[in-house]
Amino acid sequence: MSTSGHQQMIFVNLPVNDLDASKKFFTELGYSINPQFSDDNAASVVISDTIVAMLLTKPFYSTFTKKQIADSATTSEVLIALSAESREKVDELVDRALALGGSPSGETQDHGFMYGRSFDDLDGHTWEIVWMDPSAVQG
Predict the structure, then answer these.
(1) Using alpha carbons only, how large is the chain's radius of gyration in Å?
(2) 41 phi and psi angles, rounded to 5 deg
(3) If you average pLDDT over residues 95-114, what whole number do you get?
C-alpha cells in the first residue's frame, strides 16, 4: 500500500474480435469510452476512477506479448470480478449484459452476506459482479 497519496489503478487489457461491437456492448452497459486512449486498435473503457478495461484488437494485443492469445470462448484466461453496491445492482448489470448479447456464466452465488452473478462478454471474457454486505467485511 502506498503512503504517497497515489491511488493505484488497474488496467485490464483484453483482446477482442470486433472492437466496434465491444465498444457498443460496454457503453450500453453504462460505461464510457475515454477517447484520449482510444483509436482504431483500442478502446479505453472507464469502469471507475481506478479501473479501466483496455479493449484491444487481436493484432494490436499481440504486439504486447509473445504468447499465443487464448481463445476466450473455449479457454478461461482470467476472471474479472467487479463489486456492486447492492444485490439489485448485480442483477441489473448482469441482466443488461445478457440482453446485449452476453452469455450467462456459472450459477448465481447467494451466501446471504455475499451475492454474485457472472456473464461472458461478446468475446467470452468472464465478468463476475459481486455484492458483499459491508457489515460482513468490517473488522
Answers:
(1) 16
(2) -105, -15
(3) 96
